Amino acid sequence: MAGLRPNAGPTMHDVAAAAGVSQATVSLVLNSAPGSRFSDDTRQRVHDAVDKLGYRTNAHAKVLREGVAGMIGFIGDSVATSPFAGAIIEGAQERAWEEGLLLLTVNTGGDKALEAASLDTMLSYRVAGVVYAAMYHRRLDVPQALAGVPAVVLNSQDRAGKLPSVVPDEVQGGYAATRHLLEAGHTRIGLINIESLDSELPAAVGRYAGYEQALAEFGTEVNPSLVRFGQGGEIHGYQHAMELLTSPHPPTAIFCVNDRTAWGAYQAASELRLSIPNDVSIVGFDNQSTLAPHLRPGLTTLELPFVAMGRRAVDILLQGAEPDGRVELMDCPLVERKSVTHPKEMP
Fold first, then answer.
1. CATH 3.40.50.2300 in the chain, residue ranges
2. When comparing pLDDT for 120 and 38, which is higher?
3. Quick check: 264 and 291 in contact, CB under 8 A?
4. Which pTM value belongs to this model?
5. Running DSSP on this structure, what letter comes out for residue 288?
6. What is the DSSP letter of 141?
7. In the chain, at which residue ranges do the beta strands (DSSP E only) sit?
8. Residues sharing a CB contact under 8 Å with residue 131, sequence separation 6 or more, in sequence order
9. pLDDT value at position 81?
10. Which of 131, 226, 281, 331 is 20–30 Å from 87 (CA)?
11. What is the pLDDT of residues 241-256, one digit of tens each?
């Protein structure tokens, strides 16, 4: 059975022999130990031997020596399978790598047992910190284990108000979407939300508040007859857009609170033989890469800043992630395409 033993690879002893130095010298050179002085020739011989032999330092030994690994943990419920996963992980990984850290990513699929086991493993490796991410913006209960390590909540908020969090600025996004339509000359602006306001879902409540704020700044109030509450799916966008567009006084523009709702509104307009944007302008929210650019015409929408959010979460960890409960809001940029123009008739 000895033949099945995995090859452990070259050791520090092998590097020392190849470089003609002691193991202690190899260790001091590779770890840039303070106070150690070696000639450039000695350092070069050690690094040449490392490259030639393909030697890798022992990460576990580094944990024992320094008390922390060169890794940041990243745990998400379903973030790795959501349409935005690549961007949110990319941002965190990119920022970690700039500091010479690796991102150890686990997707739990909402399985609490897997989440607990993953956290236990990460903490046993003495990760430098943990990013606890969620698929969509909400308030959630974070695992108690995170109290023992620098941690930040990403794309959600700690319900207990202890850990720092990074989330999209939902109010600013709803305001920007509505203001864009107002500046195009629209005054009858419908809204199709993704949940009721009673749901307390931050995206539904915040984006509605931004809609209300923009209308107030232009001297008008929310018209309840122009507001609908769906559940964020394409079918809800279709049904509610059909109601709005066939009403006695239809809106000239609709703010759909996510891109899938906007997709449904596109289908309703098509079935009614209405032109987008000439008969009705539409703005979405999310800038979902698999959808928004591919609608005809391309959908003007607000982008969820996932790359920037991922980077900022790691920044907070690098700064120590004090458990102060702060909520950092990230701006959602407007992405203009071809779904908005001036209304046919100015009121």
1. 68-168+306-330, 170-304
2. 120
3. no
4. 0.79
5. -
6. P
7. 71-76, 102-107, 130-133, 139-140, 151-154, 157-158, 165-168, 189-193, 227-229, 253-256, 281-286, 300-303, 327-330, 334-335
8. 72, 73, 74, 75, 92, 151, 152, 154, 310, 313, 314, 317
9. 55
10. 281
11. 999 999 999 999 999 9
* Token code pair at residue 85: 């996963």
- Encode pLDDT of 109-139 as tens digits: 888 888 889 888 888 878 889 999 988 888 8
Topology of the domain covering 170-304: Rossmann fold (3.40.50)
User: Is 80's pLDDT higher than 70?
Assistant: no
Strand partners, 323: none
How is 252-286 classified by DSSP, letter by letter?
Answer: SEEEESSHHHHHHHHHHHHHTT--TTTT-EEEEEE
DSSP bridge partners of 281: 253
* Identity of residue 236: H
**Cα 213 vs. chain centroid, distance in angstroms?**
26
pLDDT digits (tens, 9 = 90+) for 291-322: 999 999 999 999 999 999 999 999 999 888 88
**CA 159/CA 119 separation, integer angstroms:** 19
Residue whose C-alpha is closest to residue 259's, from 240, 237, 242, 281 = 237
- Distance (Å) of CA 25 to CA 36, 104, 213: 9, 31, 66
Say what the pLDDT of residue 186 is. 97
Class of domain 68-168+306-330: alpha beta
CA distance 303 to 291: 12
Pair of tokens at residue 50 = 């490392």
Q: Which amino acid is at 224?
A: P
